[in-house]
Amino acid sequence: MKSAVVLLSGGLDSMVCAGLAREAGFEVIALTIDYGQRHRVELESSRTIAAKLAARHVVVALDLCAFGGSALTDDIAVPKDGLADGIPMTYVPARNTIFLSLALGLAESGGAHDIFIGVNALDYSGYPDCRPAFVSAFENLANLGTKAGVEGDTFKIHAPLLDMSKADIAREAERLGLDAGLSHSCYDPLPDGTHCGTCDACRLRAKGFAEAGIADPTHYA
Q: What letter would DSSP give residue 34?
């Protein structure tokens, strides 16, 4: 069985992405980055999801709070007024570039040539590192900048959720038999881990389940 490195944050998107990798016949190596995010409850979710998927789970600590510049890693309020145009304050500088680089290192060291990332269409307009052009460019970089790549053992970056809406992703979770209630999406959870219900991530999550006609298992404040 071929293995694939899957970036697993603990959110719904990454959970479905891991489920799709498993469905495609890959042995899943789940990579979670502890980057100092304020919504640290997602780290526990990633551990639970990885165990449910019988995946090997690798957690790497990389404190991006040293850089700041984001409502997720700095003393900046998480927006609660609804989705707005432009790049939101929850954008973490170069996060997906950094995460994919770590996934690439893990893949090359273990002989894997497939990497899965759960970027999707709803992130396209807000986050520059969720665009199809970014995914394609990173795949090219991976094959130019690694020993494996230049020797012909090329890498493939899979973004199976790229053209999906949140409703599509909720439906995929159900189809794959995944317990969406184990995932965590909120950017500013309560101390007990409850989703705040008003940040962008909560709004998109709730909207997705509603549009899919699927009962939302999320506990919102």
A: E
> Structural domain boundaries of the chain?
3-212
Whole-angstrom distance, CA of residue 113 vs CA of residue 42: 27
Distance between CA atoms of residues 214 and 167, nearest Å: 9
Residue holding tokens 């992703």?
169
Q: Enter the CATH code of domain 3-212.
A: 3.40.50.620
Its pTM surpasses 0.90: yes
Secondary structure element (H or E) that encloses residue 4, with its range: strand 3-7
- Give the model confidence (pLDDT) of 98-149 as tens digits: 999 999 999 999 999 999 999 986 655 578 999 999 999 999 999 999 999 9
Could you identify the residue written with the tokens 């094959």? 143
